[in-house]
């Protein structure tokens, strides 16, 4: 509430304030381009920053297929799955976490003791405990069966959202493995003027940038 009041005093407009609508305790501010910025109260674990980037939400055509893509090909961990059958949609929260980072987070969760390890279908607050940013996937049930349904990838006109990005240890090796497993690419490492990066397509057509961990900005742009 304090954060929203502070933003509103500074001229920020809101799509939803904390007490509005069915979902209480969260808000949506509007950035200068009209993008929705969700604001959620974190667990009190001693963060020094007043705000920190928590998640990016993508709407997807097929929830399970999208989760499989990000966990199988990009090594993400599914932290939380939330089904809302009465409203016919599901939410998935994924993060890039090492096993050690996950083990550190589990005991800090006030909502679930995780005695048998992580079960993403049980209530938890890991998305607010882990420092790592999350990818939130929103799936409206039934769209996977509609041949005419597709999400706007942000790169077709009118352009808006561009892509999400991952850093990998070995770009060429990662791309070769993903391509062998059927992943399609917008740009392979050797294509175009920019070296040390690639763009894969996720199942929804979103661009997923892959950057070699050893690449430098000057090296990536050396052909310009």
TrEMBL record:
The active site is at residue 209. Pathway: Secondary metabolite metabolism; methylglyoxal degradation; (R)-lactate from methylglyoxal: step 1/2. Keywords: Lyase, Metal-binding, Zinc. Residues 1-42, 52-213 form the VOC domain. Binds 1 zinc ion per subunit. In the homodimer, two zinc ions are bound between subunits. It holds the Pfam family Glyoxalase. Its EC number is 4.4.1.5. One of its GO terms (molecular function) is metal ion binding. InterPro entries: Glyas_Bleomycin-R_OHBP_Dase, Glyas_Fos-R_dOase_dom, Glyoxalase_1, Glyoxalase_1_CS, VOC_core. Zn(2+) binds at residues 55, 136, 163, 209. The keyword ATP-binding does not apply. Its cofactor is Zn(2+). Gene3D superfamilies: 2,3-Dihydroxybiphenyl 1,2-Dioxygenase, domain 1. NCBIfam families: glyox_I. Belongs to the glyoxalase I family. This is lactoylglutathione lyase. The gene is glo1.
């Amino acid at each position: 509430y304090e954060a929203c009041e502070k933003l509103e005093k500074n001229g920020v407009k809101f799509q939803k304030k904390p007490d509005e609508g069915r979902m209480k305790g969260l808000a949506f501010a509007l950035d200068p381009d009209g993008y929705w910025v969700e604001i959620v109260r974190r667990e009190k674990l001693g963060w020094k920053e007043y705000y920190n980037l928590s998640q990016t939400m993508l709407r997807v055509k097929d929830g399970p297929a999208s989760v499989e893509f990000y966990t199988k090909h990009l090594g993400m961990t599914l932290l939380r799955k939330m089904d809302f059958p009465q409203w016919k949609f599901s939410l998935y929260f994924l993060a890039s976490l090492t096993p050690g980072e996950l083990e550190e987070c589990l005991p800090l969760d006030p909502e679930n003791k995780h005695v048998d390890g992580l079960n993403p279908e049980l209530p938890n607050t890991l998305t607010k405990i882990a420092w790592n940013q999350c990818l939130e996937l929103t799936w409206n049930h039934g769209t996977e069966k509609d041949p005419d349904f597709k999400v706007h990838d942000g790169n077709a006109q009118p352009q808006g959202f561009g892509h999400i990005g991952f850093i990998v240890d070995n770009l060429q090796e990662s791309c070769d493995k993903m391509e062998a497993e059927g992943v399609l690419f917008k740009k392979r490492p050797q294509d175009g003027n920019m070296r040390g990066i690639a763009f894969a397509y996720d199942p929804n057509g979103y661009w997923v940038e892959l950057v070699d961990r050893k690449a430098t900005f000057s090296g990536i742009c050396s052909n310009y």
